[in-house]
């Protein structure tokens, strides 16, 4: 008996202990003490009923109109297979595709280079007859006529232009962006500063015409080739196919300044990467015209730099100062943005003063270069140079050179082999031998610049000097790849293209094999020129298998400097419609938004690790990286996990990467050869594509003819139909664009410059994508026949919401749509399929996939257009979408997104009908009362329904900032800061003086005087042209000049006389200034719903100085119903999701970006900086040429400069 009681007590103790433990494990009470187990208030229950009723009606409508269950079942019927995606295998497949294409382009350029060297070496010239106007002629891009017109007026040379410039026969070609071209021959562009009848120029034009043969062969074997060209060291550019030059000058009277020798593909091929320190003499003697020429010289030098170069500028007098104070003791990358910053700083320097301490300037320059020489482990492999711009030197600087450049490593000396380039300015100069000696003994070049006209040619001479070791080694012709640039024919103001036309270029150097040492005479080892071709970045993008990366996955390409060439968030064109000047130097850290990045310009270690792997050309992967995934023009955001896979593109400085969602991005629907299967089953695949209410992704390649010319189609759908007709025939064969494996081309002994040419009707297809497309078409086809209502109740449901259109979009890029009541003609003649063509790239597609991933229910995503976006039709529509995932065993993969559109006005009306019902015996106002504001918002807090219809599409925080703030505090919404580092902000012009608009007598005199000086100078220039342009004039350099020097920018082939009357009308007019834009950083604070947090709230949410509100999730949707008591007082808070300029940086632009200069970079390979025979070919310049014009030039220039400057003040 006692034992039984003892056992009973033991059991009771165990039960009691378990109960206590259970109580301890329960979650703590929420907030102000209300437990989540407490029943909801009557008001909360009433709002829940409104939300449930509204949500149930929407869900019923959505399921019936989309037939989502029916389409889901079709995947099972067609035996669709869910397959895991291996990111490592996928990145290897993509890089192999891209590499084959890039190899073919490189091989084409090598063929041009090889042909150029062969022709130049073998051709025999007889210039006694070639120099006559009757025999010398060529296709000129600027002066040859097409349909009776040339792009520039013929220069008045006193020659017969009819025979000199051949007339061109051109036709628009789809492949070349509908430019009028001729693929049978090339044409020649000659810049303004080069005279096209100078002997060397005529010689180059003549022999280079034989390159047409290899141009044609390249194009016929690879019709995907873009522009091919050969840039000569004389400045002429032969480009294929022939076309008229696209004039991008705003003022047609300006000189044509395009010079191939200053393009990045030419400079980088010739000089590799460089570290340059420019020393600007800022002493008292550098005033007036010399100071003007010095600034122009530096601007011209900076124009030759590219993203692979690093530089800085010191000004020196008694002391040595950095031009940009925050760039102290640092070389900065020569991005367009940094170059512009230095140009602006130089233009605004104070007047020169004091004496010049050149030794101190050299010391500082060498110390800076030494630091980079050591940290980069150069050991003789870096191109380093000092460029001195001065009007004279006061003393001997031998000790500096002995310490840094000529040392043997003892007593603190070094042998850095820094090249010295000296630019001596002005006519009256002293100690010429001293400054010439600096260049000659330090592997440099000496230039004596006396006029502005000479600056351009004198600056370019350093290129040949730095290229000397490359030329002397003779054997290797290393290809060089540029960063992105815009195509010369692209004009954002005249195109309808969705994205700017970005290009990369590959260049290969051609050597002048004529040069040798004969009879003890030194000749130059010089470039013959650079052969190159452009590669559209879009061509790379199309090979990255976007359909296989899937929704919310993407590819990107990053250079050795960490700059993006390809990325979905790269936006070369700003909101102002202008090209971002820094579009080709946007860093990877500026477009990838990781969740760890909580402050602007302070990237976390994770993003830096990914960037460093890209820069180092490494094959790596990074899993489960938390990112701020933004979309819809940076208005919506979600915290997501992504996997990154990286792989180098062989034989290039680029690394390719792919990013895929960590969960749903690991699977896809794989399909077999459905074309062959349907043929065996005697099914006509064309029946899946009947009618016109369907589209395919316009930027994806399904099937295409190699030659676009002659195979033009009005739409991508018409093109697909043609290939579907071919596929149903028994002789159908699949063909790839680049079938053979050429990635190991270096092992070939000879180039294949005679590759088999393709027939006019040759084509290629993406077999995998086409089969997937046909499966999707089959799965969705039967559900998109003629619409029939099941019963009258269904019809009334549709009419109550004004549902009129349904659609489906698939992973293969197919979009179908159907009008429930038949197609209705609209004024714009555009309908759903014309606005939404990109399937998985549409906002509603992305949102549906994200909703499925977050909610795991059969919910639909509802959205309206943003308040600032234009209407697609006359009345506002609501778009609903839902993701269908095909499930197989434990795996599921996104298959498609179904959706529909309906009337916003009908939805608004139905909502307020539902919320006008009292469910709690007047415990709270209904939504039609003035006491409350009932608002339906989406998962990013944009208003879908509001009592004030004008708030539709606005951010909820703009209307109820206090409520939105509390919802963030209660973690119902998460606020996420997203940074935009690619913006251009409009700068306010300086406020004018009160008398600015009055034409003061002094100002009138100033304007008249400037006109007189300009007119005198123009007449002088016309005289100078006849002096400089005359063919019989010779220059007196002791060392043969490698470039043709003409007078000024209006001389020679580009001479375009200006009418005297041009200035008359504008003499006293003050032109309206163009708005100026400066780079700026912006922050957008966006919001993402946290649905799980809503479960904790069952009554009014109250907070100090905030109106009480109720919030309930509308079931089976992304919507929230928020009911705000508007009778209560509130704090005046207005939130916004619009981008706001970041102003809290401790430093101004560009200093707050300085840390980017210290990010990891990878130096270019295959750089030739030294050669043992270089001394045998040394040519370091001599006194500048003198000609008749110089006797008149100084007085005119000095008068104009000083007097104009005085009146400008």
Automatic annotation (TrEMBL):
What CDD domains does the record point to?
vWA_VGCC_like
Q: Which domain of life is it from?
A: Eukaryota
Q: Which GO terms describe its cellular component?
A: voltage-gated calcium channel complex
Q: What's the chief localization of this chain?
A: membrane
List residues of the VWFA domain: 275-466
Question: Which InterPro entries does this UniProt record tie to the protein?
Answer: Ca_channel_alpha-2/delta (IPR051173), VDCC_a2/dsu (IPR013680), VWA_N (IPR013608), VWF_A (IPR002035), vWFA_dom_sf (IPR036465)
Q: Which GO terms describe its molecular function?
A: metal ion binding; voltage-gated calcium channel activity
Q: Which UniProt keywords apply?
A: Calcium, Calcium channel, Calcium transport, Disulfide bond, Glycoprotein, Ion channel, Ion transport, Membrane, Metal-binding, Signal, Transmembrane, Transmembrane helix, Transport, Voltage-gated channel
In the UniProt record, the signal sequence range is 1-33
User: Topology with regard to the membrane?
Assistant: Single-pass type I membrane protein
Where is this protein found? Answer: Membrane
Q: What is this protein called?
A: VWFA domain-containing protein
What gene name does this entry carry? Dwil\GK18111
């Amino acid at each position: 008996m006692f034992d039984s009681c003892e056992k009973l007590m033991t059991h009771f103790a165990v039960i009691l202990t378990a109960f206590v433990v259970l109580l301890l494990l329960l979650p703590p009470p929420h907030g102000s003490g209300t437990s989540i187990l407490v029943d909801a208030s009557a008001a909360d229950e009433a709002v829940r009923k409104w939300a449930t009723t509204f949500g149930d009606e929407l869900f019923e409508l959505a399921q019936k109109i989309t037939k989502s269950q029916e389409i889901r079942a079709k995947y099972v019927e067609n035996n669709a297979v869910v397959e895991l995606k291996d990111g490592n295998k996928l990145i290897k497949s993509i890089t192999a595709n891209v590499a084959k294409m890039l190899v073919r382009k490189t091989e084409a350029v090598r063929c041009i280079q090889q042909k150029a060297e062969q022709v130049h070496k073998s051709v025999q010239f007889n210039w006694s007859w070639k120099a006559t106007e009757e025999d010398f002629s060529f296709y000129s891009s600027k002066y040859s006529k097409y349909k009776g017109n040339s792009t520039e007026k013929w220069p008045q040379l006193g020659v017969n232009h009819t025979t000199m410039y051949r007339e061109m026969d051109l036709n628009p070609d789809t492949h070349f962006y509908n430019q009028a071209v001729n693929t049978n021959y090339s044409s020649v562009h000659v810049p303004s500063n080069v005279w096209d009848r100078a002997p060397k120029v005529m010689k180059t034009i003549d022999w280079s015409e034989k390159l047409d043969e290899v141009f044609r062969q390249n194009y016929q074997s690879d019709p995907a080739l873009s522009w091919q060209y050969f840039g000569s060291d004389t400045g002429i550019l032969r480009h294929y196919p022939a076309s008229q030059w696209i004039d991008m000058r705003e003022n047609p009277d300006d000189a044509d300044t395009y010079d191939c020798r200053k393009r990045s593909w030419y400079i980088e091929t010739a000089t590799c990467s460089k570290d340059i320190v420019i020393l600007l003499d800022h002493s008292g003697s550098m005033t007036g015209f010399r100071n003007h020429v010095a600034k122009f010289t530096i601007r011209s030098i900076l124009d030759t730099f590219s993203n692979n170069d690093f530089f800085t500028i010191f000004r020196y007098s008694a002391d040595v100062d950095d031009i940009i104070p925050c760039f102290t003791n640092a070389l900065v990358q020569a991005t367009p943005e940094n170059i512009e910053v230095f140009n602006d700083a130089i233009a605004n320097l104070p007047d020169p003063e004091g004496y010049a301490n050149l030794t101190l300037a050299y010391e500082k320059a060498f110390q800076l270069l030494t630091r980079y020489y050591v940290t980069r482990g150069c050991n003789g492999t870096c191109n380093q140079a000092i460029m001195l711009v001065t009007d004279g030197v006061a003393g001997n600087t031998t000790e500096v050179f002995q310490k840094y450049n000529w040392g043997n490593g003892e007593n603190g000396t070094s042998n850095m082999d820094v090249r010295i380039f000296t630019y001596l300015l002005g006519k009256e100069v002293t100690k010429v031998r001293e400054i010439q000696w600096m260049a000659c003994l330090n592997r440099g070049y000496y230039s004596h610049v006396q006029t502005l006209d000479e600056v351009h040619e004198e600056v370019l001479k350093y290129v040949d000097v730095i290229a000397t070791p490359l030329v002397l080694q003779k054997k290797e012709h290393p290809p060089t790849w540029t960063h992105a640039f815009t195509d010369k024919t692209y004009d954002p103001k005249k195109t309808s293209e969705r994205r700017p036309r970005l290009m990369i270029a590959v260049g290969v150097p051609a050597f002048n094999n004529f040069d040798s040492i004969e009879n003890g005479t030194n000749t130059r080892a010089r470039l013959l020129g650079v052969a190159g071709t452009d590669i559209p970045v879009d061509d790379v993008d199309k090979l990255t298998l976007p359909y296989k990366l899937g929704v919310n996955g993407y590819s990107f390409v990053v250079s050795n400097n960490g700059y993006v060439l390809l990325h979905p968030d790269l936006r070369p064109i700003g909101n102002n419609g202008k090209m971002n000047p820094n579009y080709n130097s946007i860093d990877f850290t500026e477009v990838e938004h990781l969740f760890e990045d909580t402050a602007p310009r302070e990237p976390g270690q994770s993003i830096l690790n990914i960037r460093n792997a890209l820069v180092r050309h490494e094959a790596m992967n990074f899993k489960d990286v938390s990112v701020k995934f933004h979309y819809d023009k940076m208005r919506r955001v979600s915290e997501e996990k992504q996997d990154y896979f990286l792989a180098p593109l062989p034989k290039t400085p680029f690394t390719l990467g792919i990013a895929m969602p960590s969960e749903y991005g690991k699977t896809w629907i794989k399909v077999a050869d459905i074309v062959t299967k349907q043929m065996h089953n005697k099914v006509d695949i064309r029946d899946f594509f009947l009618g016109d209410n369907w589209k395919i992704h316009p930027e994806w390649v399904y099937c295409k003819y190699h030659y676009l010319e002659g195979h033009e189609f009005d739409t991508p759908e018409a093109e697909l139909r043609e290939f579907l007709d071919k596929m149903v025939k028994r002789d159908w064969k699949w063909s790839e664009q680049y079938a053979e494996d050429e990635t190991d081309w270096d092992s070939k002994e000879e180039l294949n410059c005679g590759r088999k040419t393709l027939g006019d009707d040759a084509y290629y297809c993406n077999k995998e994508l086409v089969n997937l497309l046909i499966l999707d078409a089959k799965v969705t086809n039967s559900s998109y026949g003629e619409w029939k209502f099941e019963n009258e109740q269904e019809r009334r449901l549709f009419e109550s919401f004004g549902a009129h259109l349904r659609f489906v979009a698939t992973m293969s890029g197919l979009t179908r749509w159907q009008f429930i009541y038949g197609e209705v003609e609209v004024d714009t003649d555009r309908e759903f399929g014309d606005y939404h063509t990109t399937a998985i790239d549409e906002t509603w597609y992305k949102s549906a996939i994200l909703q499925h991933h977050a909610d795991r229910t059969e919910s639909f995503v509802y959205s309206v257009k943003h308040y600032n976006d234009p209407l697609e039709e006359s009345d506002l529509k609501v778009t609903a979408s839902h993701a269908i995932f095909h499930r197989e065993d434990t795996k599921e993969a996104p298959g498609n997104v179904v959706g529909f559109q309906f009337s916003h006005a009908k939805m608004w009306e139905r909502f307020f009908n539902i919320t006008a019902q009292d469910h709690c015996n007047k415990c709270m106002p209904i939504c039609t009362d003035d006491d409350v504001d009932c608002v339906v918002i989406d998962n990013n807090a944009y208003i879908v329904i509001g009592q004030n219809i004008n708030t539709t599409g606005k951010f909820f925080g703009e209307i109820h900032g206090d409520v939105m703030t509390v919802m963030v505090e209660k973690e119902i919404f998460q606020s996420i800061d997203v940074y935009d580092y690619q913006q251009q902000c409009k700068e306010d012009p300086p406020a004018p003086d009160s008398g600015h608009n009055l034409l003061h007598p002094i100002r009138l005199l100033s304007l008249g005087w400037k006109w007189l000086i300009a007119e005198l100078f123009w007449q002088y220039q016309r005289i100078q042209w006849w002096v400089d342009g005359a063919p019989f004039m010779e220059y007196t350099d002791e060392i043969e000049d490698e470039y043709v020097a003409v007078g000024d920018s209006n001389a020679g082939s580009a001479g375009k006389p200006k009418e005297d009357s041009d200035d008359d009308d504008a003499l006293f007019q003050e032109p309206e200034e163009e708005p100026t834009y400066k780079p700026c950083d912006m922050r957008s604070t966006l919001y993402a719903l946290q649905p799980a947090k809503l479960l904790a709230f069952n009554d009014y949410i109250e907070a100090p100085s905030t109106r009480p509100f109720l919030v309930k999730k509308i079931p089976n949707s992304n919507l929230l119903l928020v009911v705000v008591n508007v009778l209560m007082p509130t704090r005046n808070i207005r939130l916004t999701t619009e981008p706001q300029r970041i102003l809290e940086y401790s430093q101004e632009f560009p200093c707050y970006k300085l840390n980017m200069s210290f990010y990891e970079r990878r130096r270019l390979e295959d750089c030739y900086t030294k050669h043992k025979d270089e001394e045998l070919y040394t040519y370091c310049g001599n006194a500048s040429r003198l000609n008749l014009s110089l006797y008149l030039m100084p007085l005119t220039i000095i008068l104009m400069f000083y007097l104009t400057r005085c009146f400008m003040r």
